[in-house]
Amino acid sequence: MMLNRTEVQIDDRGPDGRGPEELCPDECARLVASKTLGRVGLIVDGLPAVFPVNYVVRDDEIIVRTRRGSVIAAATRNNVVAFEVDDFDPDTGAGWCVMIQGVAREVVDVGHVRDAQNADLAYWLDGRSSRHFSVSMDLVSGRVVGPPQRPTRHHTPVQSMASSGSVMPRPER
Fold first, then answer.
1. Is residue 14 part of a domain?
2. Is residue 172 part of a domain?
3. What average pLDDT score do residues 121-149 get?
4. Is the pLDDT of residue 20 over 70?
5. Which domain, by its residues, includes 133?
6. Count of CB atoms within 10 A of residue 36's CB?
């Protein structure tokens, strides 16, 4: 299946002129493989929906385990979906995001099913009533953002002005 991609140019640089940097496909694949919790975006009853999922990467596919008969199981049968993984450090403001677009298909390959069953995928699901689906990595894009640079202050803080004997004007009443 051929997917068409519309390019949209968005200027998302911050006040310091810096913005996210694009990641190469190999780095995107490495980052996706380093995590086990992602999000699947799909259409449910004509509306977009996003669900958190546990996953494992096998042979350039993302393997997800879900319940048979669930909304995700029904909506992912041979449909185009988005898959997103990210990481963010709240202390530094640095982070990354990888988005994958591909076709979701039921996993029928015995080896892939066994790999997924042996991985730490959604351990709270009963293996007998679960279903595995894969997402092909047809379109892969990623971005990394570094910590924001703090603006350099070029004025004298009020505290030091007062202690230096400078007189601050009083507001009029």
1. no
2. no
3. 77
4. yes
5. 21-162
6. 15
Best CA proximity match to 108, nearest among 125, 129, 126, 132: 132
Residue 82 lies inside a defined structural domain of this protein: yes
CATH of the domain at 145: 2.30.110.10
Asked if 84 and 98 touch (Cβ cutoff 8 Å), the reply is yes
Long-range contacts, 123-130 (Cβ 8 Å, 24+): 125/65, 125/66, 125/67, 129/67, 129/68, 130/65, 130/66, 130/67, 130/68
**What length is written for the chain?**
173
pTM: 0.70
What is the number of domains present in the chain? 1
Provide the pLDDT confidence category of residue 135 given band limits of 50, 70 and 90.
very high
Give the list of residues 6+ apart from residue 160 with CB closer than 8 angstroms, or none. none
Distance between CA 63 and CA 54 in Å, rounded?
A: 9
